[in-house]
């Protein structure tokens, strides 16, 4: 039996529950590799937002993404790069980066470190484009193993956190409407950092008692004012505060974390594994996003490093399809909090994947990152 048929037949048999994934693995380890390598393809796609999305620094109604495929022996892994404009990547830059990659040279998708190191070393930056390759490779390898990644990592599916749902800065009337639409969620994330912070919270509290978290996106500049605000937010049922002040103000943020009744979480202050150590002693926890850190492999390492330093871990996302959100969800059993609502903010998802049930991230048994094309 050639290898392609072996995989096909094995996949068929797996429906009956007697598939042994290690057979493919050991077959490959014996050197029975196909001549052809990994085949990468990509396609630009524009996400339509259900609502205009306002942060402390910008507003937008669409988000450009790049959808990627890695094909190997008739199996396809899906990936995605989400590129909100303020982060500096674009469909053009991602297209340039991905065009330059020569994944055909790799004939063993299991050598993930080697492949992803090659991708990372191909050019600086381009973290979302790199994540799109990482996610597609994980999806592919999980499909070959016929296992979802949370199982490959040995993570307990029942430990997934609830996810917050984001309420952007808006008029009181729109805020009330958005809160009503979010009735299913057990925690709401509120974007603060403009002049109407107290009004936003009061408006939400006029319609719901659900716990809140706030994301200031570096919007507060005075540490004493920030601390006063956090005390007030604590009384209003807020559970944690994300990036309250500009990331450069390390000493002031460390002071704030020491004195704050609520955990202070780093977001803009860190990107990759090498940044985790500098947040220790400054923040209470970190918000990890696949698009910032080049994907699942590095995110997994960052989570373990943060946990080893007794920090809290949050897993977040950009505006994304269910592809990248489901990839991040595979890691969510390691997180104290999750903010994986990016796919719920768009009206033109291309995938079906991880679901939110009663506000909780609910993983499925599908292999890889657990998605299928719609
Ligand atoms: Mg944030």
Instruction: Pick out the low-confidence regions.
Output: 1-21
H/E element sequence: HHEEEHHHHEHEHEHEHEHEHHEHEEEEE
Strand order of the largest sheet: 4-5-6-7-8-9-10-11
Q: Please give the count of helices.
A: 14
Query: What gross morphology would you assign?
Result: globular
What do these coordinates show?
It is a single chain. The protein is an alpha/beta fold. It folds into 2 domains: 3-146, Enolase-like, N-terminal domain (Enolase-like, domain 1), CATH 3.30.390.10; 151-373, Alpha-Beta Barrel (TIM Barrel), CATH 3.20.20.120. 36% of the residues lie in helices and 22% in strands. It has 14 helices and 15 strands. It has helices at residues 3-14, 22-29, 91-99, 112-121, 127-145, 149-152, 172-181, 197-205, 223-235, 250-259, 273-279, 290-293, 296-308, 322-329, and strands spanning 39-54, 59-72, 75-82, 164-167, 187-191, 212-215, 238-242, 264-266, 285-289, 312-316, 337-339, 351-352, 355-357, 360-362, 372-373. The strands form 4 sheets. An 8-stranded parallel β-sheet has the order 4-5-6-7-8-9-10-11. Strands 1-2-3 form a 3-stranded antiparallel β-sheet. Strands 12-15 form a two-stranded antiparallel sheet. Strand 13 (355-357) and strand 14 (360-362) form a beta hairpin. Helix 3 (91-99) packs across helix 5 (127-145) and helix 9 packs parallel to helix 10 (250-259). Mean pLDDT is 91; it is low at 1-21. Magnesium ion is lined by residues 215, 217, 242-243, 267, 287.
Outline of the structure:
The protein has helices at residues 3-14, 22-29, 91-99, 112-121, 127-145, 149-152, 172-181, 197-205, 223-235, 250-259, 273-279, 290-293, 296-308, 322-329; strands spanning 39-54, 59-72, 75-82, 164-167, 187-191, 212-215, 238-242, 264-266, 285-289, 312-316, 337-339, 351-352, 355-357, 360-362, 372-373.
